[in-house]
Amino acid sequence: GLGHLDAIMDASEEELVAVDGVGPIIARSVHEFFLSEANRAVVEKLRAAGYHAAVWGQRTYNGVAILARVEPVEVKKGIDDGVDDLQARLIAARVGPLRVISAYVPNGAEVGTDKWAYKLDWMKRLRAWLDATFAPREPFLLCGDFNVAPEARDVCDPQAWAASVLFHEQARAALQHVVAFGLRDTLRLHT
User: Fold this and answer.
1) Residue 9, helix vs strand vs coil
2) Whether the predicted model's global pTM rises above the 0.90 cut
3) Which residues, other chains included, contact 155 with Cβ-Cβ below 8 Å and sequence gap of 6+?
């Protein structure tokens, strides 16, 4: 593999496709992303500020990253459960002594659609991955965009939002199933 951000930034599409698990669509997207001087400048500004990055993204769609002052190691991309899912929705790495996970839960588009089913299934897969990967008392940080408003106080009009993919009862139950692993919502500790 290419292993280091500099190598990825300078790689050709052919070099990217040669990396195990990277197909031509992802290779083209990554290559085009780093052709942009604006995107390269952002990377350099972050480096100048002392940050290291673990990144997995798709052009114009999904993407997750971990930025840290300590270089992320043991980087894993995706939910390692045997499902052929190339959407860039989860990245995990060890940052110092802590395991950090950045997740981008699918939006679900509209209740009853294939995208809705994918969202609910993805959250089940996330919980199963947590069960297989971590002990409930093992310290780790799971953060990101969960695309679920867990409580009525998180939306302006709960009744109007009840059928929404962001506040639907099934979405809230799926998120609660993930949280039931033993997670604590750190925002709620302060609100």
Assistant:
1) helix
2) no
3) 149, 161, 166, 167
